[in-house]
Design brief:
Layout (H helix, E strand, L loop, with lengths): L2 H7 L26 E6 L6 E6 L2 E4 H6 L21 H4 L3 H15 L4 H4 L2 H7 E3 L3 E4 L7 E4 L3 H11 L16 E3 L5 E3 L4 E2 L2 E4 L8 E4 L3 E2 L2 E7 L18 E9 L1 E2 H7 L13 E3 L4 E2 H4 L3 E2 L19 E2 L2 E7 L7 E7 L7 H9 L10 E3 L14 H4 L7 E2 L5 E2 L7 E9 L4 E12 L4
Parallel strand pairs: 6-22, 8-16, 9-26
Antiparallel strand pairs: 1-2, 1-5, 2-3, 3-4, 6-7, 10-11, 12-15, 13-14, 13-22, 14-16, 14-17, 18-19, 20-21, 20-25, 23-24, 25-26
Helix pairs in contact: 1-4
The chain binds calcium ion.
């Protein structure tokens, strides 16, 4: 078989793993997924690269040192997998990611004996996820956030400006974005502290300083740059997906009251810099290939540098859950799908670099809040409650206009295949009280 049919075989829906938990239809990590992350465990606290399979993590460095995994284009010296971030591995290029994916898919498939029948190596190289800690998977040089859901932009424009002219004229021509703050991107499970800042109350002339009263989430996905571009050299829209390593779930925590006062005229600043949570596993674009669908029709037709043939949206089911402190059960407060996004990841990246702006391996690009066409498919509480006017009812009683201290917010995302699903696991964060 050649490389492309080997890659195709990694997506074969009938392929099963000898890691039996991976074959459960509801498992996020079947053999067709194989997402990359950084982990450590109690026996070995060194941070290192792993791939999720069923309820386990495969220790890539352990397989490499046992001679079962070869990493093309890596030089001599210590393993590229014994790092506290995936950047050095990602920088080896797409042929290397694909080669590792193909080798792992074979090693973990049910009919492949090399690892399956080597109990000593299996014990060393397979770590239960419940025994491991997951860390931020990449060192992120830069973080950019877009604003690409038509439904979200329309809802926000209606609320803050004019329902008749909710979308500004540039929105349908430009994948609108801003340069975010990479330093405050954290991995799922990290608590996030409610920010203090300037709040402008309607009945007072000057702002007051205090804790955010309108704390919100933004349901987003993010993509991680796998191949950068040189300063001055834009990435063409048709080539843009070749620069993407994979995708994560992303919660762009937002302080709506701070945002509303500060955003004129340059856009959000402190309202968005106090924390951005991403899921720990990066799902590669290769694993997502079966879930590629057509993007929404774009009218007006985008300028030429933003055009690409074929299908560039992905069918990703998304949910948001809210669990108050002490509650037994979370309430699902939104259900939507990534396929509704107006601008594609390729168009976002082409636009980002059209000025000649360079991107680097590990850069994170947020999709923008993903809202769907119905009332129960909004990607922020701002929209779900219409700026707090229609509070949400929670399962165990109580309501929410915005997030309260102790609330735990969870994003969930998955692609449903034939008899299997490809998931991200979750993107979780609990809100701590503001500093006094
Ligand atoms: Ca955002």
């Amino acid at each position: 078989m050649n490389a492309s049919s080997d890659l195709q075989a990694t997506l074969d829906a009938s392929r099963k793993s000898w890691v039996e938990s991976a074959n459960e239809p509801s498992c996020d990590f079947p053999i067709q997924n194989l997402p990359f992350g950084i982990f450590s465990d109690a026996l070995n606290t060194t941070r290192r690269a792993g791939v999720a399979i069923g309820d386990c993590i495969v220790d890539l460095a352990a397989l490499e040192s046992a001679g079962l995994l070869t990493v093309p284009s890596s030089g001599a010296g210590d393993s590229v997998f014994v790092r506290d971030a995936l950047n050095d591995f990602i920088a080896l290029g797409r042929d290397t990611w694909r080669s590792v994916r193909i080798q792992l898919s074979k090693l973990l498939s049910r009919d492949h004996a090399a690892l399956r029948d080597d109990a000593e190596l299996r014990n060393r190289a397979l770590i239960r996820q419940s025994h491991a800690a997951l860390h931020l998977p990449v060192q992120i040089p830069g973080y950019t956030d877009f604003y690409s859901s038509k439904e979200h932009a329309t809802n926000v424009g209606s609320m803050f400006r004019d329902p008749k002219n909710a979308l500004l004229p540039n929105w349908s021509e430009i994948p609108i974005g801003y340069n975010g703050r990479a330093s405050s991107v954290v991995v799922s499970g990290t608590p996030v502290r409610r920010p203090n800042g300037q709040l402008k109350l309607p009945d007072q002339e000057r702002p007051v300083y205090g804790a955010c009263r309108k704390l919100d989430i933004e349901l987003e996905t993010g993509f991680v740059i796998g191949r950068g571009n040189a300063l001055g050299d834009p990435i063409a829209c048709e080539d843009a997906e070749n620069h993407i390593f994979g995708m994560v779930l992303l919660n762009d925590w937002s302080a709506r009251d701070i945002q509303q006062w500060e955003y004129v005229p340059l856009g959000p600043f402190n309202a968005k810099t106090f924390g951005t949570t991403i899921s720990p596993w990066i799902v590669t674009l290769d694993a997502l290939e079966p879930f590629r669908v057509a993007q929404p029709v774009q009218d007006p037709q985008p300028l030429e540098y933003l055009r690409h043939g074929g299908e560039h949206a992905f069918d990703i089911s998304l949910e948001v859950l809210l669990k108050p402190q002490g509650a037994k059960e979370a309430t699902t407060i939104s259900r939507t799908n990534f396929r509704h996004m107006y601008w594609t990841m390729a168009q976002q990246l082409a636009h980002h670099t059209v000025s000649g702006c360079n991107t680097r391996v590990g850069d994170l690009m947020g999709s923008g809040t993903i809202s769907g066409p119905t009332e129960d498919s909004c990607g922020s509480l701002l929209e779900m409650t219409w700026s707090g006017k229609n509070p949400l009812q929670l399962k165990e009683g109580g309501t929410r206009a915005f997030i309260e201290d102790g609330d735990e917010l969870t994003l969930v995302g998955w692609w449903q295949g034939e008899g299997y699903r490809v998931g991200f696991v979750t993107c979780v964060g609990e809100i701590l009280p503001a500093h006094q």
